[in-house]
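Hi there, hope your week has been kind to you so far. Do you reckon you could talk me through the fold, stretch by stretch? Thanks so much in advance, here it is.
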Amino acid sequence: MNVSLTPELEQYVKEKVSSGLYYSASEVIREGLRLLKEREQLQQIRLQELRQDIQAGLDSGEPTPLNMQAVKDKARQRRHQRQPQ
């Protein structure tokens, strides 16, 4: 397999090899591909969790309107309780 890189990426790979962290350019590319695969797997897990959360919300029953005044009142009460006297 032959891979073409932009000059910037090629320079980055060379820097990684010359730093001693990697033995060869192939090793740098393999590490990058492993990280890409891991990121994609995490995204799939997060997407599945999000879908489950959405479904749980849909299955939870009829929606009720949010009482913003009650939320604000509760926040003010908590803030007042925290303030030093």
Summary: The chain has a mean pLDDT of 95.
